[in-house]
Amino acid sequence: MRLRYAVPALAAAAVLLLSGCVDNSSPSTGGSESAPAIAKDDAAAALLPEGVGDNGKLIIGIDPTYAPNEFKDADGNPIGWGAELAEGIAAKLGLTPEFQVSKFDNIIPSVTGGKADIGMSSFTITEERMKQVDFVNYFNAGIQWASAKGNDVDPDNACGLKVAVQATTFEDTDEVPAKSEACVAAGKAPIDKKQFDTQDAATNAVKLGQVDAMSADSPVTLYAISQTGDALQLAGETFDVAPYGVVVAKDSGMAEAVQAALQSMVDDGSYKKILDGWGVSDGGISTITINVATS
């Protein structure tokens, strides 16, 4: 369910700039149905860089293919706890949230190119990404593997196995390649990494037996398992906990405005309410920071 926003002219739902096909088979959702109204924070709004929000909108780049963080409802609208946090940021800044749906790897270019004000799509903060943009830390997530029920897989001994990942995620660019390189260095077969455009497709590949396992962020894997009944199981323990960050243009001043908005949500309880509603409060943080990357 969507939040109510105590901001003038925000009675209607967010305007959507949707692209691509709509998946009407979205899984059942959690959500912060009883979340309180989120009021504008004047101090946070005063930090907005010149020109941002002049049209009354906060343009949010999002790839809604990563349930339960960001995905689509049956009508094609972005939902999930990440989407709700983004709406909350807009409310705190006194702006109307407008989602700009795109592929994951197009979000950072959209922010750096001025087409989106922020990117909210479960970005793991890395030193490489911080060369292009600034990040406002808002959550800590680990990596969690899953395999088909009855097919026990050890992420630390996966040499020669087929492993599904969503393209351009941290698991695709860093985690699985590093494991594969370690296999080769030990004289074993590399991991056969299989890239998919969406997390749903990666999960389905495990379910259908096309791959041995999948690697994704912990809240995503746990949600996928809950939505596939007895088809999937955990493979190993959660590891490599790292921060998520909201993407903003580098050295633009936008990071400070988003930081203040999120900290205001932490302080008034609306941040925790959203996380609780989606069952992901274990990854919540109490202090919102800027540019704290995983090593």
TrEMBL record:
The keyword Signal belongs to this UniProt entry's keyword annotation: yes
Residues of the signal peptide: 1-24
Record has Transmembrane helix as a keyword: no
SMART domains listed in its UniProt record: PBPb (SM00062)
Pfam family, one: SBP_bac_3
Domain Solute-binding protein family 3/N-terminal, chain residue ranges per copy: 57-282
Keywords: Signal
CDD domains: PBP2_MidA_like
PANTHER family attached to this UniProt entry: ARGININE-BINDING EXTRACELLULAR PROTEIN ARTP, MEMBRANE-BOUND LYTIC MUREIN TRANSGLYCOSYLASE F
Protein name (record): ABC transporter substrate-binding protein
Lineage: Bacteria, Bacillati, Actinomycetota, Actinomycetes, Micrococcales
